[in-house]
Amino acid sequence: MTVVEIRIELKKGVADPEGSNTRKTLESLGFEGVASVKTVKVFEVDIDAPADRAAEMGEEMCRRLLANPVIQNYKVTVR
């Protein structure tokens, strides 16, 4: 079994309303000095395949479903 970690985040310059709202809420709760908060999605996928094939499958999952290449970057890591 191969574990593939897929990390998806917004590209630089793309608005992140969830991150902005979280930063504002943290500030209202008294957390000082929080300059920014960015949201990131992480998927951990167990794949019954060798590491090289699992990495290829992770890339294909991103291209076909998990990531929007117009506004998101993704990184596939085999662990």
Description:
The structure is a single chain. With 79 residues, this protein is an alpha+beta fold. It has a single domain (2-78), classed as Phosphoribosylformylglycinamidine synthase subunit PurS (Mth169, Chain: A), CATH 3.30.1280. 35% of the residues lie in helices and 30% in strands. It is built from 2 helices and 3 strands; from the N terminus they run βαβαβ. The chain has helices at residues 17-28, 51-66; strands at 2-10, 40-47, 72-78. The chain has a 3-stranded antiparallel β-sheet with strand order 2-1-3, with helices on one face. The model has no long low-confidence stretch (mean pLDDT 98).
CATH topology: Mth169, Chain: A
Q: Residue-averaged pLDDT, rounded?
A: 98
CATH architecture assignment name: 2-Layer Sandwich
Provide the domain count: 1
CATH homology superfamily name: Phosphoribosylformylglycinamidine synthase subunit PurS
Summary tags:
single chain, 79 residues, alpha+beta, Mth169, Chain: A, 2 helices, 30% strand, elongated
Structural topology:
Elements: E1 2-10, H1 17-28, E2 40-47, H2 51-66, E3 72-78
Antiparallel strand pairs: 1-2, 1-3
